[in-house]
Design goal:
This protein is of the alpha/beta class. The protein has twelve helices and 14 strands. It is globular, with a radius of gyration of 21 Å.
């Protein structure tokens, strides 16, 4: 039996409690699919600071290097304590540190509105009732966030600040290939988001993406300006399958798409590099205000584990089984507090996990 090594980094806040539920789901996958997962637990974020005085200690990096994938929880502490050494810069040091260490250049962020949760979406009801299933593919290590030079100069009214948007052909091409190859396994459409009517960098982006698109004749390719893309997400999100974005536009549009689903507690993500290694994490954050209360929604963490099975381990059937179990539970009316509506059955973290587990095992 093949052994798959998973670095488990629960982190802070609700991270440990939703991670516990996700691991129960993975345990069921082991039994059902005759595979063996070797969980290698490590500290990150504020939890790591307590023992190591670092948000991303070398011991954690070592465990990640020796693993086949990383299942990440969340990091961050109470707002009132953000300026203490324990919490200052925790996300930058933890998440960005891991992305940099493993060259995780592609962020895959699904935004799916289940018909059963249409009421939770801020979209007009005639739009939300149709549901949608979008995957935002965001370039994660280049663009204006990392381009040099950046800084400030001068003083008084003449003081200026500047950043540099910079992309190489190789960077654009590799993220475009990710988008087209993922689209081949979905509904075969890529919408590439840019601002080619204003920015030279985005003219280049569009040119390289168009060149890459010719290698995938089975995938429909559509360029779209970012302002129009932001509007179309609210008017007709069903038109999108895979949205390919540079770092800044992907950061913004993936959050917009996430908000349209009604709850961040539903949304997983993956950050992948060359090969099959990746880091998988929920999109909702550490939510320290509800930590330890047993009311957090574990679905984003469960679906992050499902993405790990799909992209790092190639276990497509197991992934689809988990996704189907989640949707069935929602259709059966089970809800955590963040997605509850009168007439549904409100459950806590553990029971939501148990209901999904029951359907996965059946």
């Amino acid at each position: 039996m093949e052994m798959k090594r998973i670095a488990v980094l629960p982190g802070d806040g609700i991270g440990p409690e939703v991670m516990q539920v996700a691991l129960k789901i993975l345990d069921a996958v082991q039994s059902k699919y005759n595979v063996c997962f070797d969980y290698r637990h490590a500290l990150v974020g504020g939890a790591a600071w307590n023992d190591y005085g670092s948000h991303l200690p070398e011991e954690t990096l070592k465990i990640c290097r020796e693993s086949d994938a990383i299942l990440f929880g969340s990091v961050g502490g109470p707002v009132r304590e953000q300026d203490t050494d324990k919490w200052r810069g925790v996300e930058v040091h933890s998440l960005l540190g891991l992305r940099k260490a493993f060259e995780l250049y592609a962020n895959l962020r699904p935004a799916k509105l289940y018909p059963a949760l249409a009421f939770a979406s801020p979209l007009r009801s005639d739009i939300s009732q149709k549901g949608f299933d979008i995957l935002v593919v965001r370039e994660l290590t280049g663009g204006i966030y990392f381009g040099q030079p950046k800084g400030r100069r001068g003083s008084g009214d003449a003081e200026t600040a500047f950043d540099t948007m910079l992309y190489s052909r190789a960077e654009i091409r590799r993220i475009a290939k990710v988008a087209f190859e993922v689209a081949q396994k979905r509904r075969r459409k890529v919408t590439s988001v840019d601002k080619a009517n204003v920015l030279t960098t985005m003219v280049f982006w569009r040119q390289v993406v168009e060149e890459t698109a010719r290698e995938y004749p089975d995938v429909e390719y559509e360029p779209m300006y970012v302002d129009n893309a932001a509007m179309q997400l609210t008017k007709n999100p069903q038109q999108f399958d895979v949205m390919l974005c540079g770092n800044m536009f992907g950061d913004i549009l993936s959050d917009e798409a996430a908000a349209l689903t009604g709850s961040l507690g539903m949304l997983p993500s993956a950050s992948i590099g060359m090969g099959k290694f990746g880091m998988y994490e929920p999109g909702g954050g550490s939510a320290p205000d509800i930590a330890g209360q047993g009311i957090a929604n574990p679905i984003a963490q469960i679906l992050s584990a499902a993405m790990l099975l799909r992209y790092s381990f190639g276990m497509i059937a197991a992934t689809e089984d988990i996704e189907h179990a989640v949707e069935t539970v929602l259709n059966d009316g089970y809800r955590t507090a963040d997605i509850w509506q009168k007439g549904n059955r409100k459950v806590g973290t553990a029971e939501m996990g148990d209901q999904i587990l029951k359907r996965l095992e059946s």
